[in-house]
Amino acid sequence: MPELYIDGQRISVAAGTSVAAALALAGDGCSRSALNGTRRAPLCGMGVCQECRVSIDGQRRLACQTPCRDGMRVETRR
Amino acid sequence: MNARRCADVIVVGAGIVGAACARALAQRGLEVQVLDDYRGGATAAGMGHLLVLDDNPAELALSAYSLQCWRDWAPRLPAGCAYRNNGTLWLAADAEELALAAAKQQRLSTHGLDCELLGAAALRAAEPALRADLHGALKVGGDGIVYAPNVVDWLLAHEHIRRCRAQVVELDGAAVRLADGRRLAAGAVVLATGIDAGALCPELPLTPKKGQLLITDRYPREIRHTLVELGYVKSAHQATGPSVACNIQPRPTGQLLIGSSRQFGSRDPGIDGTLLARMLKRAVHYVPGLATLNAIRCWSGLRAASPDGQPLLGPHPHRPGLWLALGHEGLGITTAPGSAELLAAQLCDERPPLPVAPFLPQRLLPEAADA
Ligand SMILES: Cc1cc2nc3c(=O)[nH]c(=O)nc-3n(C[C@H](O)[C@H](O)[C@H](O)COP(=O)(O)OP(=O)(O)OC[C@H]3O[C@@H](n4cnc5c(N)ncnc54)[C@H](O)[C@@H]3O)c2cc1C
Ligand code: FES
């Protein structure tokens, strides 16, 4: 059961869970904010639309293409 | 032809050129009907770089005049048009290119344009993200950027302009036939359908030059000017074979828009991965840090090229009532305002702001044998 942090909130998920799924389980389900402040969330779930861009351990990643790992720090508000 | 007269002028095509023509005509008090079937064209695909080009005197006159129009429009453009007067840096990689930059400065200065030659150190200070061994650059201060699709909406929001979704399938002088069978007539028809004009007017000598672009995610802003390699002029005009050149444009969002490529003869909208890779390598060659950024989209578009590289602006020589605003190749977002003024002035019998001869369609449409 990997344990990770989404905007500082600790959550543990089943092995093999994607970060996109973890976002849906914790918080508002969103991965980032648009320039005008609107929250944006994963859409296609298959690495095409790029809506699920999120900061993971300081790197931009696609939440739907990234499996959760122990100790990950996911930030949706930067 | 029993057609209903619907306006003083029908403009076919609501890309940036058709929209600018409609606006220029409406400002002269004419009622304008704009028709577009929303298939989309170059305006939505382009980079929106507003730049002076000086390969020949006609191009320099039209682009410089148009840049002045853009700067006049700037205070009225809505925020969504993302206009910025951020200037272009023409990058010189070696002594030969620096000499090209100096010659370009000479030509632009003679035309009264704001430009400044930067040496290697000044260039590094201006754009530290560039590779360190460049010889310098020419800075063209009046150049800018814009988001063209939103400019189209702004241009068409005018009391004398009506915009309607319709596909034109046939031209007949100052009348058109629509896909639903209706016929509409006016005092004049302006054809501004970009590369698709050939379907309505097969005698037009327009060929597609495909281009591919890529945009990155948002990052803290490190690049301020639009960065173009001076080799661009060489590669853009290379007659055969696909070519690439470094063209990096900072968007107001913090994204970087990266171009550019040119490919003759293809109308296939698909991405050519090998050419895209060549293009990105060229950009990374100039700004090494790009290699660590994420891209979020790439797409392609078609530039409508005329044989001499200049647009066709004016009456069709053999079809009374039909006017052409076509063939803007890779510079139509920049030159839309000037093109529109040249077209509207001819249509309304005014004195045009620039000499029109280099742009008259008749230069490329010789007399029909039986005319
Ligand atoms: C990759 C790329 C990068 C570019 N970068 C720049 C740049 O940085 N700066 C610059 O100045 N220019 C640039 N350009 C060039 C610029 O985009 C074009 O010159 C310009 O957009 C042409 O505008 P237009 O209105 O003539 O044509 P289009 O934008 O193609 O508009 C034609 C319109 O006609 C409509 N239409 C077509 N046929 C019909 C029909 N039968 N019935 C009804 N409607 C119809 C279409 O739906 C479309 O809206 C670039 C072009 C490309 C491809
Ligand atoms: S949800 Fe579309 S790319 Fe991840």
From TrEMBL, chain A:
Pfam families attached to this UniProt entry: Fer2_4
PROSITE patterns reported for this sequence: 2FE2S_FER_2
This protein's record includes keyword Oxidoreductase: yes
GO MF annotation list: iron-sulfur cluster binding; oxidoreductase activity
Transmembrane stretches, start-end: none
This protein's UniProt keywords: Oxidoreductase
Protein name in the entry: 2Fe-2S iron-sulfur cluster protein
UniProt source species: Plasticicumulans acidivorans
Automatic annotation (TrEMBL), chain B:
PROSITE patterns: PROKAR_LIPOPROTEIN (PS51257)
Pfam families: DAO
Residue span, FAD dependent oxidoreductase domain: 8-345
InterPro entries with a match to the protein in the record: FAD-dep_OxRdtase, FAD/NAD-bd_sf
Keyword entries, A-Z: Oxidoreductase
Keyword field contains Oxidoreductase: yes
PANTHER family: FAD-DEPENDENT OXIDOREDUCTASE DOMAIN-CONTAINING PROTEIN 1, SARCOSINE DEHYDROGENASE-RELATED
The protein's name: Glycine/D-amino acid oxidase-like deaminating enzyme
